[in-house]
Amino acid sequence: MRTITMIVIHCSAVRPDQTSSAAQIDTWHRRQGWKLGIGYHYVIRRDGTIEPGRPEWLTGAHCKNHNAHSIGVCYEGGYDIRGQPADTRTEAQKASMRRLLEELHARYPRAVIVGHHDLNPQKDCPCIKNVVHEYADLK
Description:
Blueprint: E1 6-11, H1 22-31, E2 42-44, E3 50-52, E4 70-75, H2 91-107, E5 112-115, H3 116-119, H4 131-134
Parallel strand pairs: 1-4, 1-5, 2-4
Antiparallel strand pairs: 2-3
């Protein structure tokens, strides 16, 4: 069993006129040569639907040097209509993300919740101003 010390939030880096389901992301990742497909454990669609990606017991492929001990959560979006980084989460996504993070934090109480950018400052992902602050009450 893996020891989970982090929950890492990501965005799928798509504009509002584009979609990114778990199945689509799986296809994208396989095209990049990832034999196990989707690197995230969960994908949150704009309508708030939470789609499973990799099983939690399987190491993710979402944040270099941090995959072995983390769970990857990706929300659909992250770019505005011009293709610029922006917090594009819908109210349904925000509610589903909070619910999922509460469930994950209950299972992994020592896990810190961070954005991809917090671990790799060269990334805009997840395009949320301050993930650590937004979910600080879950710690």
